[in-house]
Amino acid sequence: MNISIITVGKLKEKYLKQGIDEYTKRLSSYSKIEIIEVPDEKAPEILSNAEMEQVKNKEGERILAKISQDAHVIALAIEGKQKSSEELAETLDKLATYGKSKVAFIIGGSLGLSNDVLKRADDKLSFSKMTFPHQLMRLVLVEQVYRAFRINRGEPYHK
Question: Does 32 belong to an annotated binding site?
């Protein structure tokens, strides 16, 4: 399976980079994984609703340009379906079984994802009703994908 994580913005925090590097290294024995960063749109702190949509649309265009045509797209969105680790593992297992070898997870910027990206998504996944920094979600997502592969292989994992 080929996993892409398409995400907005550069990762600056060293501790997050170290955690992501650790899990991508662990994942490499199960799957090919690629993290694709697209530039975030510079914007002032206070935006009107129209300006927020503009920012999301510009970031969305950059995201859509990086999605492979044959990828199964899973957008991380607060309004998405919440799943347990076992349910995520089952989802990835079913995708592999039915020939969907390319999976793209999408993490939006600080304002979220554009409507066009959400329309392109085959699934929407929520990790919580809480809001998390999008940089932190990279680490959480990579860890959960690693856990999913361990679950699917019947290997021990922390419960």
Answer: no
What are the structure tokens assigned to 122, written together?
Answer: 């085959």
Q: Residue 64 annotated as binding? A: no
pLDDT tens by residue, 122-157: 999 999 998 888 899 999 999 999 999 999 999 987
Do the annotations mark residue 130 as ligand-binding? yes
Residue 80 in marked binding region: no
- The DSSP output letter for 67 is S
* pLDDT tens digits, one per residue of 58-95: 999 999 999 999 999 999 999 999 999 999 999 999 99
Coil vs helix vs strand at 15: helix
pTM of structure: 0.94
112 is in an annotated binding site: no
Domains of the chain are 2-152 (3.40.1280.10)
